[in-house]
Specification:
This protein has 218 residues and is α/β, with parallel strands linked by helices. The chain is 44% helix and 15% strand. The strands form two sheets. Strands 1, 2, 5, 6 and 7 form a five-stranded parallel sheet that branches. A two-stranded antiparallel ribbon has the order 3-4. Strand 1, helix 1 and strand 2 form a beta-alpha-beta unit. Helix 1 packs parallel to helix 7, helix 4 packs across helix 7 and helix 8 crosses helix 9. The chain is globular and about 50 Å long. About 4% of the residues have low confidence.
């Protein structure tokens, strides 16, 4: 069985991987292991995990993970929304304006910084909640806000286009129609209602990431 290590920012992504991706890939003889980036240390020596991260923190963690000879791939699941300016290419003036060209440009810059054949960079467009917009019925079955959710869907051709500023990022839109929304609980429940296949059908960049991991079994 091939092993893939996925470096993530927080508990929501970790739980998403453990409760959805692990079982999805087990059927393909691929073992998925999520790892939350350590953001700082307590005086006791133990680590804080999750929260806002700089590229330096991510790079340090990745270089450690890439030393694991039992891993066939090391990848990331990092939100593009709120991405720290320290990440490669983030402040460049020649970043493409097209969404998918932009994310490819930034991931290429990311990969060039790490320079390892087992590393596959992935930014989640625009954040974890994007995936929840893959299916209206699955989404509405949990939040019971069908009309409001449909109204958001009407303005975009696919979930990955839902933009990323402080007012209109996917999570901000959810909070506006359902203020009690909790990422780690509600987000995972909705994810399970939707399923990985529907997410792949609606989210092109996410599908490309899943495909890249499937390729290691060959």
């Amino acid at each position: 069985m091939k092993k893939i290590l996925i470096l993530v920012e927080g508990q929501t992504e970790e739980k998403f991987i453990k409760e959805l991706l692990v079982s999805y890939f087990e059927n393909q003889s691929i073992y998925i292991v999520p790892i939350i980036v350590s953001t700082s240390r307590r005086k006791s020596g133990s680590k804080y995990k999750g929260g806002v991260v700089s590229f330096g923190q991510i790079k340090s963690e990745l270089l450690k993970l890439l030393k694991d000879s039992s891993a066939s791939m090391v990848t990331t699941m990092i939100d593009y929304y709120g991405l720290d300016n320290s990440f490669p290419g983030k402040g460049d003036t020649n970043v493409p304006s097209n969404l998918y060209e932009k994310i490819q440009f930034l991931e290429n810059r990311f990969g060039n910084e790490i320079k390892h054949k087992k590393f596959f960079p992935y930014y989640q467009l625009h954040e974890f909640e994007t995936l929840l917009f893959s299916d209206i019925e699955g989404f509405a079955s949990v939040l019971k806000k069908t009309d409001e959710i449909q109204n958001i869907f009407r303005h975009f051709t696919n979930p990955e286009e839902i933009n990323d500023n402080r007012e209109t990022a996917p999570s901000k839109r959810i909070l506006k129609i359902y203020p009690k929304y909790q990422k780690v609980t509600d987000g995972i429940i909705i994810s399970k209602k939707i399923g990985i296949e529907k997410m792949r059908q609606k989210c092109n960049h996410f599908n490309d990431w899943i495909t890249s991991m499937e390729k290691i079994k060959h």
